[in-house]
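U., I forgot to send this yesterday:
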Amino acid sequence: MFGKKKQPAIRTLIGEGTVILGELRFTDGLRIDGEVRGDVIATSEENSILVISENACVTGKVQAGHVIISGTVTGPVFSSVLLELQPKARVWGDVRYEALEMHQGATIDGELRPLKADERPAIKLAASNAG
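Result:
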């Protein structure tokens, strides 16, 4: 309805207190409440959702379609559909996104660039009326 795509189901949960070492690949949806030390990559990027909860920590590359971050990510983030940064989100790394929703309180220590930055026209400054 209203042109919105249905979100994929979150089929996998990494519970609080769990630590995963190594690359993690997933399909559909993944929620992380624990810790991942390695890359987290959606195999079907356009139709995927990744939720990194408030107490979660990911050290490595994050790549998915719809990414919701409430916890901590140390590494680059790539979101091909929508990136949501909740108030307690902390990202240390470069961020690339198609669409961005960033709440007050979220922080990014890295470069923030839209995916289509190269296709956008250059910004032109208005001429000064000083005289």
